[in-house]
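#lab-general

N.A. 3:47 PM
ok so I finally got the sequence cleaned up, no stray characters, all 693 residues accounted for. can someone with queue access submit it? mine expired

B.Y. 3:52 PM
send it over

N.A. 3:53 PM
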Amino acid sequence: MGGDPVEGHGIEKHVPLFLLPVVFAIYLITAAPTVYLGDSGEFTAAAFSLGIPHNSGYPLYSLVGKIFCLIPLGNVGFRMNLMSALFASITVLLTYDIILRFTRKILCSLTAACFLAFTPLFWSQTVSAEVYPLHCFFMALMIGLLWQWDQERDFRQLLLFVFVTGLSFANHMQTVMLAPPVLYFIISGDKRVLFTPRRFTAVSIFFILPLLLYLYLPLRTQAGAAIHWGDPDNLERFLAHVTATAHRGAYVFSAGPSEYLSRFIDGLRVISRQYGVLLFLSLWGWMGLSSLRWKIFFVGVLLCDMFYTVFLNIISLEITPFPLPSSIVLAILMGMGLNRLIQWAGRQKKIGTGVRRALSAAFCLTPLLALTTNFGLCDQSKNYTAYEHALNIFRTVDPGSTIFLDGDNNVFPVAYGRIVEGMGEAVTLHDRHNVIFKWVLPRYPFTFAGSWEELESAVINRIITHGSHRGVYFAVMNPFNLSLPKGYGIRPFGILLRIVHGDSNKAPPDKIWDYYYTKSYYDNFNRDYMNREVTCRYFFRLGEGLYLGGKPREGLRMLRLASAMGYDDTSMHSDLGVFYADHGLFEKARGELEKALEFHDNLSGVLNNWGYCYHKEGEYEKAVPFFKRAIHLEPDNHSYYNNLGFTLSRMGDREGAASVFRKSLSIKRDQPEIVEFMRKHDLPCEPDERISQ
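B.Y. 4:20 PM
back already:
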């Protein structure tokens, strides 16, 4: 294991001269030409404005990103994508160097590092603005520094390692998952290195110094940064933001055993798709390690990364690449395994020189195979979807209008468009979670005591009633949970929903679709889940508009396209099912709801929509069990109770309907349409204390 890297003819000195630029060039060729969907818009806007993105705040990423925003090359979105490509390329180079230190074989090191570079999981993070390439850079750098310290046991090298670890924490808190294997490795190598007072003090100082970068959060909040998520300018909010307190209840240990088992299997699938049978090479490489400490370290990284992936977050693995640290470790072990394979072949007298060379050449071609196989999968060079989506949102409305935004794929592209590109400055923006485009409550002064959902509803209703004459719109992925003032409804209006006073069934003007940029929607490139979500929503709104505008054949064609584009999007299939049910196309509705059930990530919502479909069909007895199952899964969702109440009322069960409606009102008091329905049908609307307890 020990020793310096091979010096054979000095070739190893020249490998970085072509490895880094070649990998970087390929990443640039496939990078998105502007802002990407998901967190990309938020991270880019935060870096551009020296703002604060979602927890944990990512201060180092924002500061380094600001430097890239100043590079006079392309638009700001592309400059941030450039940052991802560069740090990912350096990570590949560092991975090559780590394998070279272990094996002293250039061929094995180059093969495994390049294979990592062109795995879909790793490559996909190089095409857009994301924090993970910088996180991977720090991880590879930390492993390399740990190897160097283990060889020489120079305390100064350990201090450098600790400082780099602190910098990594200033970028991404997922670094904490390296703590158990790292602490084991250091303490098992030198039991006293961390426990003498002098050295412990030095290590603490070098770890804490880079963490002072988190002072960026309160400083930029006080300075009035364009994005100041969480307002971390006092100790309570600072700690809540950095430690992601607000998300812990929803993401950390928040699922059941079956969900965790499913997520564990999904995590294994993600890794197996990257390496396939080459995982056996990684296993063989691990088995060949002569150092038990390194064996335990690498297994520790894999286990801790899987623990984080399964238990500490519930975001879909289609969206967020949590297993990246595992992917880097497996690449390192793969290089070691390849070295063992070549050495084994060399010892076999029955295997001729030509066969051994062919075997080596075959494994050397694996990166080329990965490159050619995954190029089309990762190429986003034609992807303008996020930029066009933001532009189209602003093109839908007139100056002086108000837009409520919900969902990352609406809020973040619009954040980029407004903060970076200056789009729609005459339009008022509010995001429903009040984190980026914050509510200006002094304009609507009132005293309030209640839940967050009730406050949100009260603010939205007040804005609607005071600003509907100028135009109030919603850019939301799920419009069915909107609570509107009495007498107001929702009208489809291009890709948005417009709030109207009175009839909400009128179609939007046909010409509105002529104002949209749509090149990316029709372009042929591979779309990930987020891109499919936005694209299928566009075709859904277009199909909806055509159908309501008297062109049912064209409308149904667009709706079928939306269904095909969003094949694994539960929300899309549910919305299509509801639309078809609303217009009496019950067979089509059931077909879409079957697909929603297949890919569901929210079973209660799908069951509720099944009940709604049967209700519209007049099959009330079939609808009731679905509503009750939805309520059982999500007992605090007032809309499920309302749907059950409407169905029971149609069945003539007045007492049951009244009881269900009272339960709904105990969950959410501000529902004037429910109170009016109960009054109209002579149902007692006083709160029922027995039900609300």
